[in-house]
Design goal:
The structure holds two protein chains of two kinds.
Chain A lengths: L19 H30 L7 H12 L2 E3 L2 E2 H28 L25 H24 L1
Antiparallel strand pairs in A: 1-2
Helix pairs in contact in A: 1-2, 1-3, 3-4
Chain B lengths: L7 H24 L5 H4 L2 H41 L5 H32 L1
Helix pairs in contact in B: 1-3, 3-4
Chain lengths: 155, 121
């Protein structure tokens, strides 16, 4: 008997671009990709700035000074703005990721199964049971945004 | 599942577990920027951070390095496997990401361990 070849079929992308939940999942993937690229660069830069285990103020100041770039306004450098944006992205990724773990893995806020009664055969899946998790995530992000703005630009 | 491979559901569990760990350690790492980012990135501040809490913060940095690399690279692998479907996609992605991860982990470990040893002696 001839072996049947299995062919991997690409996802049907149109199914993804539907609602907020789908967009939040896409955001999680894109922000994750940006953050891992940043992490690789950040680790290599800080390791170099620490002289690969032989720390000296000279090496540190040279590397960090180059990475921070020119001053934009007062004590704020280009690097400050980039780090601020990355920290914000990490906060949104973390808050959204924690929400996804709670909903996808633990099923928090999922609607309870309902008895199928005639004539309403199929229970609605569009219940706002998980919306409160999104509101909590937004509140956490706003608090982080305020603190990060103070730390990066004001204090 | 091919022998020797980790099942997708196991990777997913690790991904979620490391995500929760990262919320804590990234939170601690960012808290060390307090009260001013510019002051926290000076050489004196960076060295005192590593020594903080009797080097317990250095332990946080080790956890952060390994957890973030593992979490990030598993996530990137999932994303790349969703986008690429050619014949050798899986083996190419796996080998490339493992090599990158091991390299960065070694560089980070050498830098951090060397700094800790230099500060102790």
């Amino acid at each position: 008997m001839a072996q049947q070849k299995t062919k991997r079929v690409p996802p049907k992308w149109s199914l993804w671009f539907k609602g907020l939940d789908e967009w939040l999942l896409i955001f999680q993937k894109v922000s994750g990709a940006i953050l891992i690229l940043y992490l690789l660069g950040h680790t290599l830069v800080i390791s170099t700035a620490l002289g690969l285990g032989h720390p000296s103020p000279l090496t540190w100041n040279a590397i960090i000074g180059t990475i921070e770039g020119p001053a934009i306004y007062g004590h704020i450098h280009v690097g400050t703005v980039i780090e601020y944006l990355i920290a914000l992205l990490a906060a949104v990724h973390g808050a959204n990721g924690f929400r996804l773990i709670l909903t996808q893995y633990f099923g928090v806020g999922l609607p309870k199964p309902e008895r199928h009664t005639f004539p309403r055969a199929v229970p609605s899946t569009k219940k706002p049971g998980q919306a409160w998790l999104k509101y909590i995530a937004v509140i956490v992000i706003i608090i982080f945004l305020i603190l990060a703005t103070l730390v990066a630009f004001i204090w | 599942m091919v022998m020797g491979m980790v099942s997708a559901s196991t990777l997913r569990k690790w991904q979620y577990l490391l995500g929760i760990v990262l919320i804590v350690v990234v939170g601690i790492h960012l808290a060390f920027r307090w009260p001013s980012y510019e002051q926290s990135i000076t050489y004196t501040a960076a060295i005192s951070h590593i020594q903080a809490w009797d080097f317990a913060y250095a332990a946080v940095l080790y956890i952060l390095l390994y957890a973030a690399l593992t979490h990030g690279l598993i996530g990137l692998r999932t994303l790349l496997l969703e986008l690429w479907h050619w014949k050798y996609a899986r083996i190419t992605i796996d080998v490339t990401l493992i090599l990158i991860g091991v390299f960065v982990a070694i560089v980070g470990t050498i830098a951090l361990t060397g700094t800790i040893l230099a500060l102790i002696h």
